[in-house]
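As a warm-up, study this chain.
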Amino acid sequence: SITIVAPTLARLRSAGTATGDVTVAVPDGTTIESAQVAPVDPLEVPAGTAPLTGSVDYTLTELDPGETVEVVIAVPEGSELPGVGKLVDGTWVELTDDPAVTIDQDAGTIVVEITDGGALDEDGVAKGEIVDPLEPVGPCDCFRLDVQRVESTRGSVSAVGAGLLCGTVCQVLA
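Now compare it with the structure written out below.
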């Protein structure tokens, strides 16, 4: 569920391994036009991690073209937050060490300094609007499977294709 609490605050339900709410907060004078959390394929994030909240996608308006704003994303309470990135043209781009991104493990927040039309603005155009998807990732003792088909012969089952096992969570993706 999505709740725009105020023009500067949105509360979203996590679509990842962490349960609870994700919040997006921006400074006064900036408006969260839309926000959503979308599921992320676990095979699209780096090995050893899992999609913590899903992709946190938001659109900010009421900006001057080229303006830089601070966006604070809070993950569900108690979540371990080792990293953040985004998919760009199907390729994972790691943002954990980007100078515009600060992760505060104790507070459970990601702070992003994002510029309209800059590298982190998805459309790359300075037009008074920022469109940004971020994907917080959590730790996972994972190993990947290559499963293409499942065959059963006399009580024996074999599988071939793609999948990911994380702790007690097993998700086979076809």
